Amino acid sequence: MVVQDWVSVVVNSLQDLWAGAVGVLGSIIGALIVFLIGLIVASGIGKLIEKVVSFVKGYGLKPLAHNLRFR
Length: 71
Hints:
The chain has 71 residues and is mainly α. Helices cover 92% and strands 0% of the residues. It has one domain (2-67). It is built from two helices and no strands. Keywords: Membrane, Transmembrane, Transmembrane helix.
């Protein structure tokens, strides 16, 4: 009877440990997915800003403002 109680305690402890590990692993995977999506979006925005800045440098700001009817 005592051995059965010890086995029950050990099995329950290991099951709780496994459940906690799976929960943490799920959170880590979710965080990595969000991080990777953020990197992709930031890369795209960076390329867009780089193109806008190179366009403004090449074309000039005054002609661009004149064409857009800014004074």
